[in-house]
Amino acid sequence: MKQTVILLLLCSVFTGAKSQPDTLPKPTGKYLVGVTYRNFIDYNRREVFDSTQSSFRELTVKVWYPSDQKSVPEPYFLKAEADIATKYIQYPALYKDLKTNSSRDVPVSSKANNYPVLIFSHGLGEHYSQNTILMEELASHGYIIFSIAHHYECKFSSYPDGRFIYLDVSNPRLQKIMYENMMVSSKGYFDKLGNATTDDEREHIFRDILTATPIITTESSTYWAADISFLIDELDRINDDDYIFCDKLDLGKIGVLGMSLGGLATSVTCSRDERVKAGVNMDGAFPFASIYGNHQAPFLYLNSPRYLGCGPLFVSHSKKDCYSLTVRGAGHFNFTDHTLYSLPMVDMLLGPIDGERALKITNTVVLAFFDKYLNKNESQDIISLADGYPEIEVSSNLRIY
């Protein structure tokens, strides 16, 4: 597979890995966890990665949900995904046997009539399983989470019928995206951000990034946000007739979250789709409200140290409750499963923070935020919770400085 082999250009050579457990950490909630797979076609949008413009936009989706039943643990990757990951993308053999805490296609729990819904977007070049630990944690506390594979900008994805799609780095559009990524590094924008002393300086740098990366920061983020809104459209049908989820989705409680480019897509969605009641952006931070318009829902930025000092800018323009939590010592991939299951290709994007500590912060803060703003648990105090972690720099439009 020529395109698959080319994926090696994106990766470092694997030289070994430390011993890691072959089952993900057990989630802490009262529910067992189910998992299933779906795919959708948006007949109102053409696929931008198809140069002929003859195909429609398709999505594959992985869903975690609360259950009362348990069966054989679902593998982290499906077989085709594991084969590609270990053979061509230099994932260690562990990923062929890595087990989750989820059971395939079991019924949704009967302990509640329905459950709030979350939609997750992965990072650029990543995959819909990249935050499985967080997804299982949220599901164990009573959330149904739909994780989108944004086709042609994800590593790979499996259709429920066995078809398989993977990243094609020979695609001209993807090559432009890769070039934009290199431009951000070569121009040292994040170094400049770290040296900035005023919000005006920081906003100017963010606008320079927008100019240098129009496909990533504007086109792709908007395209992915359209994926999210399309999936929200589909939730009505899923709630009507899906054999697992019929009448189980609380469509008055919809939240979105994402990591990296998926986080930026979350910001776009929260500025445009009023059906979304809360949003979380994990290290895809951008002063979106100040550049494009206010978020329509409470919002949480969870950032790595490259955004230290940016919190007041992030929260200052939002009319809804807004938080910026920057975790000192964290790296970009500490907000994914790689915080525990690292690869040499991502080591440079992991910070010195202990992986389990980073995971605890992410799981605790994200769960508390959605509990407060979707489940209306007013006892949750996000600022006090964050203040309990000395490595977190806290900014909020609710805090008087």
Q: Provide the CATH topology.
A: Rossmann fold
Give the termini separation: 57 Å
Strand content: 15-25%
Tally of domains:
1
* N-to-C order of helices and strands: HEEEHHEEHEEEHHHHEHEHEHEHHE
Structural class: alpha/beta
Number of strands: 13
User: Radius of gyration, Cα only, in angstroms?
Assistant: 20 Å
What is the fourth-level CATH superfamily?
A: Alpha/Beta hydrolase fold, catalytic domain
Your description of this structure?
- The chain has 401 residues and is an alpha/beta fold.
- The protein contains 13 helices and 13 strands.
- The strands form 2 sheets. Strands 3-4-1-2-6-5-9-10-11-12-13 form an 11-stranded mixed beta sheet, sandwiched between helices. A two-stranded antiparallel ribbon has the order 7-8.
- Strand 9, helix 9 (261-272) and strand 10 (278-282) form a beta-alpha-beta unit.
- It is globular and about 55 Å long.
- The N and C termini lie far apart (57 Å).
Q: Main attributes?
A:
single chain, 401 residues, alpha/beta, Rossmann fold, eleven-stranded mixed β-sheet, two-stranded antiparallel ribbon, 35% helix
